[in-house]
Design goal:
Length: about 230
């Protein structure tokens, strides 16, 4: 059982195509930051047929152009075994994106994985990526693209990572999102879903469906999340 659990953990941590903490519900990050002088909270659950994850990622922008994210997750397998992740990331922009224009930045971070039964040695990833976003039609259409690199701590293996996403605002509070993302060592993943603004620019909920290309349905996931971005943080 320990070997089976270890194999699942390695698949999740080492084979996941990109560790990029994007605006919910994207995996492909955007060239935007949370409100200057404030903080935000993104939290979501992701469910597979044989496991479930819960994530919470608070982020703050104390100076106006440096966003710091620190949070983590809890993963529960069908056999009741559990593991946790902790992540720390810093992100900044070279160019802010206007309503009809483009923006770009860079993010660097580290994820540490802790299985319930230690498998020997540290597990996790160090990563860096460049997000680029382009806005059209006064922000109703926005594309996102990422190019990056990640290194596995245990094996020392390097991977090139990438992502491409599109968000389309089709009603005042409704937005459709779609993306594909992956790395240079495996088939890509895809995800699509909806985002709804309960309070415009402050509080949103979302739901997505995703899967790796060409793999059996047990690898599909369903995700539900929320994002709270206050104008000011006390």
């Amino acid at each position: 059982m320990l070997m089976r659990l270890t194999a699942k953990v390695l698949c999740l941590v080492l084979c996941w195509p990109a560790v990029a903490w994007a605006a919910r519900p994207f995996m492909t990050d955007d060239a935007r930051l949370t409100t200057a002088g404030s903080c935000q909270l993104e939290t979501w659950s992701r469910r597979y047929s044989d496991r479930s994850e819960f994530w919470a990622l608070p982020a703050c922008n104390p100076t106006g152009n440096w966003e710091i994210t620190a949070g983590g997750s809890s993963l529960r397998e069908a056999d009741k075994s559990t593991s946790t992740d902790a992540v720390l990331q810093i992100k900044t922009l070279f160019k802010s994106m206007p309503a009809d224009g483009w923006g770009a930045g860079v993010a660097i971070g580290h994820l540490r994985h802790r299985p319930q039964a230690p498998a020997g040695g540290g597990q996790g990833q160090t990563y860096v990526y460049v997000p680029v976003s382009v806005s059209f039609a006064e922000g109703r259409f926005v594309t996102h693209s990422n190019v990056g690199w990640t290194r596995d701590r245990a094996s020392g293996q390097d991977q090139l990572t990438w992502g491409m996403g599109l968000e389309v605002q089709f009603l005042r509070r409704w937005m459709w999102i779609g993306e594909t993302f992956g790395n240079d060592r495996q088939k890509p993943f895809w995800q699509t879903g909806l985002r709804y603004q309960l309070v415009p620019d402050r509080f949103q909920i979302d739901a997505t469906w995703g899967a790796p290309q060409g793999l059996r349905s047990s690898h599909n996931w369903l995700s539900f999340g929320l994002r709270w971005t206050p104008d000011k943080f006390p």
